[in-house]
Predict the 3D structure of the following.
Amino acid sequence: SLALSSNNNDFLRCLSANIPSQLVLTPSSPSFTPLLVSSIRNARLVAPATANPPLCIVTPTNASHVQAAVRCGRRHSVRVRVRSGGHDNEGLSYRSATPNGEAFAVIDLAKLHAVHVNPHEATAWVETGATTGELYYRIATAAPGLGFPASVCPTVGVGGIISGGGIGLMMRKYGLSADNVLDASMVDANGNLLPNKKAMGDDLFWAIRGGGGGNFGIVLAWKLRLVPVPPKVTFLKVAKTMDQGAVDAVTKWQTLAPALPDDLSVRVVIQKSQANFQSLYLGNCSTVVATMRSRFPELGVTSADCKEMSWLQYTAYIYFGDAINSKPLEALLLNRSTTLGPFVKNKSDYVKKALTKETWKKIFLWPNGAGSGQLILEPHGGIMGRISANKIPFPHRSSVLYNIQYVELWKGKEAGGDITPNWIGSLYEFMTPYVSKNPRGAYVNYRDLDMGVNKVVGGVMCYETAKVWGERYFGPANFKRLAKIKRKVDASDYFRNEQSVPPLPLK
Ligand code: FDA
């Protein structure tokens, strides 16, 4: 409408009065589309993002630019979406998933990626535009002997992953990324800079550590507690086909992996009827081989299956594989690029009671159709079971055996065709009786819009509608507390998207 487009122009004028023009790109710039797609990791999301592009992309180089973008947005009724690493499984950091949705701008934090490590205190401040690979590299080079528990994949953004929790191979020993946040700085829904948790207050500081990105404000930096890692850690990998006993091994793994020593994490990737056991042990080869031979003899682990390396090398090796041997570890820094593979759709579950062998056999043989399906099983237990379910918003703690991530990959013919091939949907439905219930749990960082999208009622997102997925991500009590905090810090619901936390209604 006329009013809207005049708002949009006023918004752009407001930005140009407050932010250097080279930091604001509009669709007329030749650099706009390359920047828009620069951190998209999923071919399924490219066409929807470029077909309905943001009004502009702001690439702040300091906090005042972020504040200005929020203030201009509020003044002229243009919403902003914030992007750190761009890995959101539904692309909500850079695209509107609502047909004919309202105009929006993107704040892309990629230029704010400094990492300041304090080796004596074992802490680091990391700006949210950094990737986890960059964080790992800066920690290990400034403070050998220290590390941080975060993603397996080093291209993930620190802004999104820590906002939603952060699971990885050190979580059994040290918890989620968000469990290790000591402080933070952020820009709130009024464009104010809140430089630390004291300025935020306990509620808001609780909400941003696991309550999901894009809900409460724009986090500029996290202060992290770094964790000790030994000089050498061990990578261990064993593959089993069904003929080699994969089904029995996974059946046993379900209760074994969560009960192993905290410094040993064994995850499983199941693909093409094969189970790939991958592990991180915070210690040497001979110890982990002995542990695995006594606790999990079915895998037949030998010292030939394991490799010792530094923790930093490990973070690169698990992603690049043997290719890292011919690359410098600085490869961890160079990971914001458009290398688009297949179309991808993800879902998640939590398992609290082990599945039977017969059930696993059906899962292994579930028909793939035209795509290919992958299950990634991440063991809980360890410290994850000892942290209470309301310490931070992430609720999946003591009773959980493991997390399942379903990943379906396919080649899309019609670009942007938002088709979900049938492996993931049918398997997810089949799994209903075997996974957590009332509510069926899901991990907010494996965002899945199939669970539902927000509805605007009375100018704000509807709490009742949002409960459907919100209680699955956060549990009923945590979700209600998040909504209450949202009402306190952003009552008019400025920061919102298709699955944002709505303000709790007053009555
Ligand atoms: P992106 O920039 O898309 O942001 C995600 C959400 O957070 C959006 O809603 C966005 O608006 C918001 N946001 C971003 N920056 C913010 C900020 N500074 N302040 C407030 N809100 C902000 N997860 C995991 O726990 N362990 C893992 O090992 C992996 N591995 C993995 C691999 C790959 C290839 C993908 C695609 C994803 C994962 N994930 C994961 C999931 C990942 O944690 C999740 O997608 C994160 O939200 C991604 O964070 P980014 O900053 O990259 O995303």
